[in-house]
Design goal:
154 residues, 6 helices
Length: 154
C-alpha cells in the first residue's frame, strides 16, 4: 500500500532527509503534519456524532431531522442540529428546503460525504478487529493508575 503524501510537505521532507535532520524520525513521511490536507478527513469527523450522521445518511438516504433523531437514537435535537451544521459547513451534507406548508427540510450526503463512506467502513472493520485489544490496553493502563484525563463531555 502506497503511503499517503502531502504535496506541500514533499520538498521539505526531501530537504530534511538530505540534511540528515529527518523531521519525522527519518521516515520522510510528513503526510499527517499539522498543516497537511491529509488531516482534514480526521478533523472533519472528530466530533462523536458527525460520523454517525454521515453513516446514517449513507445507509438510509436523505432524511428529515426528526427521522434522523429517531433512527440514530441517543442524540438530542440540539446536538443533531450542531452536527448537521458542522457537516454542511464542511461540505459533506446538503440542506434541502421544500416550498411546502408547513416548510420541509431534509439532509443528504454530497459527493464528498458519499466518498467518505468507504474509509469510514474501513475504520469500522479495523474497530471490529481491534476494539477488544484497545479496550484491554485501556484497562491495563487504568489498572496501573495511569489513565489520561478525559476532556469535559468526552
Amino acid at each position: 500500500m502506497e503511503k499517503p503524501s502531502c504535496p506541500r510537505d514533499t520538498a521539505q521532507a526531501d530537504a530534511e532527509n538530505a540534511a540528515g535532520t529527518g523531521g519525522t524520525g527519518g521516515t520522510g513521511d510528513t503526510a499527517y503534519t499539522a498543516d497537511c490536507h491529509a488531516r482534514i478527513a480526521f478533523e472533519v469527523l472528530a466530533n462523536r456524532w458527525d460520523s454517525v450522521v454521515v453513516y446514517t445518511l449513507g445507509a438510509c438516504g436523505p432524511m428529515r431531522p426528526r427521522a434522523l433523531v429517531a433512527r440514530i437514537g441517543g442524540i438530542s435535537p440540539k446536538v443533531l442540529n450542531d452536527a448537521l451544521r458542522r457537516l454542511e459547513y464542511n461540505g459533506l451534507i446538503e440542506r434541502r428546503t421544500y416550498a411546502e406548508a408547513p416548510p420541509r427540510v431534509d439532509y443528504a450526503l454530497t459527493e464528498a460525504g458519499t466518498a467518505l463512506l468507504v474509509p469510514m467502513r474501513e475504520m469500522g472493520a479495523w474497530a471490529k478487529r481491534h476494539a477488544d485489544d484497545v479496550l484491554a490496553a485501556q484497562d491495563r493502563f487504568e489498572a496501573q493508575g495511569r489513565a489520561p484525563r478525559r476532556a469535559a463531555g468526552a
